[in-house]
Amino acid sequence: MSADTPGNRVPRFDPLPENEWDDVLKAVAATTGPLNVFTTLARHPELFRAWIGLGSMLLMKGTLSARDRELAILRTAHHRSCEYEWEHHRGLALGAGLTEAEVAALRLDADAHDWSDDDRMVVTAADELHAKGTVTDATWTELATRFGEHELIELVMLIGHYHMVAFTLNALRVQNEEGH
To answer: In this model, does residue 1 exceed pLDDT 50?
Structure first.
């Protein structure tokens, strides 16, 4: 991680105190706990409500497998040097079947690990979207042998969404909670 990561600096906004939470944030916190990502972004209630719907769909109701989803998210967190995103999704990745070695390999060059063909497709898509802002025809053709239309759209949106989340977490200097 770079020297300018959120963990090294003071947050730009403190998380919203519990006595100021609206019903949406209360419902989210009842499910996830009072995570700083939510209690910080809830300082803009209208935007938070719109964002939490998309984020929840991608995280809990999507068509991608949990393994594919977490591969894409962790690779994106690595590319964006977002320690908050990394720490919160590391446990989800392990729960989705990734091994400690695979999680660690997501911080390395893609060729530094012997990924399965299925995993390599997802990692390559995240790498290309990060580097080029698109997916090459060769990668798209390979992805299309495995994923249908909904999954392909979702994969690209998932990676883009977590880039946006990483930008936000890093720029606002959102800190990990105690224990993360």
So the answer is: no
